[in-house]
Design a protein that fits this description.
CATH class of the largest domain: Alpha Beta
Strand order of the largest sheet: 3-2-1-4-5-6
CATH superfamily of the largest domain: Glycogen Phosphorylase B
Number of strands: 12
Order of helices and strands: EHHEEHEHEEHHEHEHEHEHEEHH
Shape: globular
Bound molecules: iron/sulfur cluster
Helix content: 25-40%
Number of helices: 12
CATH architecture of the largest domain: 3-Layer(aba) Sandwich
Structural class: alpha/beta
Radius of gyration: 21 Å
Largest sheet: 6 strands, parallel
Distance between the termini: 54 Å
Length: 358
């Protein structure tokens, strides 16, 4: 049974689609249509026959680009089949009308997506979108339309597969921190987020608390280099700045070597889940109940559960509508450091006692 998975959303959504891909791979070959940003994240995945890139905001923009991308996907499918018919099923892990049209243009016997998706009129099979479930399980449930199989324990944890290229890239970055004690456990800090109100403001204070017991590194995109510089200057302790220097999959490799990662509700949280790295996830205006909490076997969530205004937005507003931003400002560096201690792969030995909030 040949499957096409269409996933053109954010980094986290793509990572959380990997349990669905693994399930479908048990039944036959799986091709994945995704974006040039997230496609490289799926490299080396043993469940994927082919990653097909659809540059929906660039070269393939507009109806002509959509048609071109669909046609080339169809040609790739034909290459692998002597007497091509179509995919047995296309799974719309991203629910837009554009994705549904893309799947229709490629061709499949069944089109499977969520009951709440914008493109649902173009589906032949509709699966309930279970608000109360983790998003990895929601996506996995797309595979259940023609089976009664339940998922096995652990099957919902996403997985990424960094290769030799990523290992070499991480080795090169780590070798540029010669003064750090290589015996110290590594803590990875991921302070970025596309949404300003989801960026916890005390990473510098946390770095000062953790610095004596750990080797520290900051990850993020090139666009987050200014944020990393600000944190390093404010912390005034040794922190390896890996922002803009590692691909997403190499960032996953670095996270995989860490004793713990501290992250906002953003992409690195899901990279950590995929590498099963102990995770402290800081949630401000959003909550794990939206379905995007950590899935590592050791994890903790920092969040102001007592705040009545929380959650206030599905993704995080541009500014706090109440002006005080207490969902983040009241989450101290000391509290997060304690959570790091509780989840880290090995216990803290020499960590300073907390002295300041930031
Ligand atoms: S309204 Fe509440 S939850 Fe929303 S950003 Fe402000 S403090 Fe955070």
């Amino acid at each position: 049974m040949a499957s096409l998975v269409v996933q053109t959303s954010f980094i986290g959504d793509t990572v959380l689609t990997t349990p669905l891909i693994a399930e479908l791979a048990r039944r036959g070959p799986v091709d994945v249509l995704t974006t040039p940003i997230t496609g490289p994240l799926l490299a080396n995945n043993p469940g994927i026959r082919r990653v097909i890139l659809y540059d929906k905001r660039g070269a393939d923009r507009g109806p002509v680009g959509l048609w071109r991308a669909a046609r080339s996907t169809r040609e790739l499918f034909d290459e692998g089949k002597k007497h091509p018919v179509s995919y047995d099923a296309a799974y719309l892990a991203q629910g837009s009308i554009r994705s549904a049209i893309a799947a229709r243009l490629v061709g499949a016997k069944e089109y499977v997506g969520f009951s709440t998706s914008a493109g649902r009129a173009l589906y032949t099979r509709v699966v309930p979108y279970r608000e109360e479930k983790h998003h990895a399980e929601r996506l996995w449930s797309l595979s259940s339309w023609n089976t009664r199989d339940a998922h096995a324990p652990g099957q919902l944890r996403p997985a990424l597969y960094p290769g030799e290229k990523e290992r070499e890239a991480v080795n090169a970055v780590l070798s540029q921190q010669p003064t750090a004690n290589s015996q110290q456990l590594l803590i990875v800090l991921a302070p970025g987020s596309a949404w300003a109100t989801k960026r916890w403001p005390y990473f510098a204070g946390l770095a000062r608390i953790l610095e004596s017991g750990f080797r520290l590194a900051i990850i993020g995109s090139e666009a987050e280099q200014d944020l990393a510089r600000t944190i390093r200057n404010e912390a005034a302790v040794e922190i390896l700045d890996a922002t803009g220097r590692l691909s997403l999959l190499a960032s996953a490799e670095l996270i995989g070597r860490a004793a713990a990662v501290v992250t906002n509700d953003s992409g690195p949280l899901h990279l950590a889940s995929a590498m099963n790295t102990p995770t402290v996830a800081v949630f401000g205006p959003t909550v794990p109940a939206f379905g995007f909490g950590p899935l590592s076997s050791s994890s903790a969530v920092a969040g102001m559960d007592s705040l009545a205004c929380r959650p206030c937005h599905r993704h995080g507003p541009r500014r706090c509508p109440l002006g005080h931003w207490r969902c983040m400002r009241d989450l101290s560096a000391e509290h997060v450091a304690e959570l790091v201690e509780s989840v880290a792969a090995e216990p803290l030995a020499n960590t300073q006692q907390p002295t300041a909030n930031s």
